[in-house]
Amino acid sequence: MKKNNSSSIRKRIHFTYALIYLLVCIFILGVFFALTTYRSASVFEQTGSSLTGMIASEAERSGVGSDGLRVYLISLRSTYGIREIYIVDGNGTVISGTTRITDGIDALLSKRDLLVKYFPQFSGISDGSYFFITETVLDSIPVRLIICFDASGVYASQMYSLKTLVTTLLCGFFVFVLAGSYRMNRILAPIREMTEVTKQISAENFDLRLDVTHTEAELNELAVTINDMIDRIQISYDKQKRFVSDVSHELRTPIAVISGYGSMLRRWGKDDEEILNESIDSIISECENMKELVEKLLFLTRHDNDTVNFDMRPVDISELVATTVREEGMVHPDFTFELDCESGIIFNADETRFRQALRIFLDNAVKYSTDIKLVEVTLKRLGAGFCLSVKDHGIGISNEDLPNIFERFYRADTSRTKETGGYGLGLSIARIIVENHCGIIKVRTKEGEGSEFSMIFRNINATSPSASAAKPEEQAV
Question: In what helix (H) or strand (E) does residue 421 lie, and over which residues does it extend?
Fold first, then answer.
């Protein structure tokens, strides 16, 4: 089907250019015929004008109806390549001429073709004659002078030139078709090469790219665009592949644990109460881990499908932050949480989602802290909005990891397990929540000294996500 489409395009282009060529040929033939006919007519007109003066002189000397004028007209016929000469009065009666006509001159002229009938300066090409017709005065008598020139030689020359031109144009047409076909193949060759390379690109062979070094400007732009598209597809495919791999990896561990404890219970757990309790606790723990993972994956999936609903209503952010930080301090009594919070900040938000995002940053601050178990939380007004920041004094984030920390299942410290480092989904979820509250995330970090995550909301009255919600700003200090 694709070959037929390509062939169809080639045929349409050939047909278009062939039609243009034929129209040009017809135009050339028409111009040639018109110019040669006009040139021949001009010669006959000039000769006819000269003969008109000579006949007028002879008519004054011999008389219009005399035999002397008729003899003179006959003598002109052989000298100037004339077939017939007629002098006609106002009634259409032939007064004098090279031959005698009984039917009148109008009967003779009516035999000519339609073109000559309405344009008397030209004769029918087929009969090889040219009629020169003029109104003049001979011997004080108004008459019409008709000179019929023999145009057979001009006609033959004209037909020969026309046939030569037609033959040349036909030869040119075939040369044009052959050259056009060759040129068309040259033009379409890069497109065929692009098609072949594109066919070879697959999930297992994403490294192939179109050659952009030997293509012309328009095709070069197309090749670059296709390469960019393939790059984006490859990036998306790699993310999806890594996502599936990470999910499989995260689910493999709890399933293996549950399976292992189930086998242990089958063998010894029925008679050993300690093994029974340990197995039950581990199975419940792993089920909770899987439940947490599934809930996070469902949230991300709903976001990808634009089905996440945010219950926006006025929320006292100052109270929400204070409560959440106090609860986090109860969960982690070995940590010190310093809170610098301005009161009375009211914001249209989904309280549950907003608290979830704050807890993600607080949990990360705890997980990635080292000897200094201090977490600083600051809530300040910022113009028409506010800024909520969480700062830790932990391991920090390297410059290599910083651009990827919001990707799903990405962990800056790969040595951490899910107990200490989570699943790598928290920051992805937090970013989605912040962006759906018309906010951005700014990161300041220094490896070995800690990180500060700031949620910035520039419009405290915003109720829906901005179309221009920026990606999180990242800055390594």
Answer: helix 418-421
Structural domain tally of the chain? 3
Do 95 and 87 touch, CB atoms closer than 8 A? yes
**Sign of the alpha-carbon torsion through 355, 361, 367, 369:** negative
| Contact between residue 201 and residue 230 where contact means Cβ atoms under 8 Å apart | yes
Collapsing DSSP to helix, strand or coil, 454 comes out as strand
Tally Cβ neighbours within 10 Å of residue 364.
22
C-alpha distances (whole Å) from 307 to each of 291, 296, 310, 429 are 20, 14, 10, 14
> Are 178 and 157 a contacting pair, CB within 8 Å?
no
Asked whether residue 187 is domain-assigned, the answer is no
By C-alpha distance, which of 179, 182, 178, 230 is closest to 205? 230
H-helix or E-strand spanning residue 382? strand 374-382
DSSP 8-state symbol, 469: P
**For residue 340, what is the enclosing H or E element?**
strand 336-341
Q: How far apart are CA 61 and CA 139, in angstroms?
A: 8
**299 and 339 inside one domain:** no
State the pLDDT at residue 2: 47
pLDDT along the chain (477 residues), means of 10: 56 79 83 79 85 88 85 83 84 80 55 47 55 84 85 76 82 80 76 78 72 70 82 78 70 77 73 76 80 79 79 92 92 92 92 92 91 93 92 90 83 55 78 92 92 88 46 47
Q: Tell the residue number behind the tokens 């003779």, with chain if given.
A: 108
Indicate the residue among 287, 304, 321 that finishes a domain.
Answer: 304
Last residue within a domain, chosen from 271, 304, 337: 304
**Domain range for residue 417?**
313-476
Give the chain's end-to-end CA distance (angstroms, integer).
Answer: 58
188 vs 210: CA distance, rounded Å: 15
pTM for this predicted structure: 0.51
Instruction: Give the C-alpha distances (Å, rounded to integers) separating 423 from 4, 121, 246, 301, 420.
Output: 52, 100, 9, 16, 9
297 and 370 inside one domain: no
Amino acid at 147: I
- DSSP β-bridge partners for residue 131: 148
Q: Does one domain contain both 246 and 392?
A: no
User: Residue 471: helix, strand or coil by DSSP?
Assistant: coil
Residue 316 burial (CB < 10 Å; 0-12/13-18/19+)?
Answer: middle
CA 435 – CA 469 distance, rounded (Å): 6
- Report the C-alpha gap between 280 and 269 in whole angstroms: 10
- Does 17 fall in a domain? yes
pLDDT of 203 reads 65
The vertex-275 CA angle with 271 and 279, nearest 5°, equals 120
